[in-house]
Amino acid sequence: MMFIVPPPEIVDMPELAIIGLGGEYCLDTRGEIPKLWWLLQTERQPIHQGVRATTYGVFQTVPPGATFSYYDRFFYIAGLAAEPDESERPPFHAVTLKGGRYAVFRFTGSYSEMTQAFDAAILNWLPQSDWQLDDREVVECYPGYKLSEKSLPVFEVWLPVTEKT
User: How many domains in the chain?
Assistant: First the structure.
């Protein structure tokens, strides 16, 4: 069964600094990424007073500066927005997401469905759209929410795009 994501909203995003834990992965090993999230929960404790902070999964190309390719290796950071005075220190990695135009896919679901939504955006929507990826990072966004909420959270996939020429 094919996972269907609603059409994206094309938005201009500001620059955003992220700090978190990272590792190198590929299509065959991306199933290991949840381990980073578990480590982040231990190291950064993104839950305060019953509210889970917004977290980000950042895909960086290997080597840096290339356009993201679904089938190539990537460096993944599981992180949070950095505090203004926060700097990179081991074991953490820092990245500043460049501002600009993104195709933002939003869907209500579970964490396990994020991979399916990501695949649908990259493999189904992007090739048929009037947009192409540029050399900025691809991002998963897990917006914050109150743990007491009964409804499923809304997740986002951010694709950095420019119009096809």
Answer: 1
